[in-house]
Amino acid sequence: MSGVQKKNCIFGCDSLAIQNVPLHRFPNPDMRPALFTAWVTAVGENIGENKTQKIYKNKRICDHHFETKV
């Protein structure tokens, strides 16, 4: 088995079972700290992690959890 960790949506939905659902990485905390903090705040307790680099490298949110802006 490879050492590659599967990326899943932090909300626990089964987004990987549905084809073509993009998973979004958190904004880079070094380049966009305010946006990174806004995402972490919006996610709340579902994030399950408090280390900034671990969140950025390992946590994803599937496309279903974003609002479409027109």
Number of helices: 2
Mean pLDDT: 79
**Tell me about the biggest sheet?**
2 strands, antiparallel
Distance N to C terminus: 44 Å
From the alpha-carbon coordinates, what is the Rg to the nearest angstrom?
A: 13 Å
What's the number of domains? 1
* Widest sheet, order of strands: 1-2
| Helix content range | 25-40%
Uncertain runs are none
Per DSSP, what share of the residues sits in E-state strands of 2 or more residues? 5-15%
Secondary structure tally: strands: 2
Strand and helix order: EHHE
Short key terms for the protein model shown above:
alpha+beta; 70 residues; 2 strands; two-stranded antiparallel ribbon
How would you describe what is shown here?
One of its GO terms (molecular function) is DNA binding. This is THAP-type domain-containing protein. It comes from Diatraea saccharalis. The protein is an alpha+beta fold and 70 residues long. The chain has one domain (15-65). Helix content is 26%, strand content 9%. It contains 2 helices and 2 strands; from the N terminus they run E-H-H-E. The protein has helices spanning 33-43, 52-58, and strands spanning 23-25, 60-62. Strands 1-2 form a two-stranded antiparallel ribbon. The longest helix is centred in the middle third of the chain and has 11 residues, at 33-43. It is globular, with a radius of gyration of 13 Å. It starts with 22 loop residues before the first strand and ends in an 8-residue tail after the last strand.
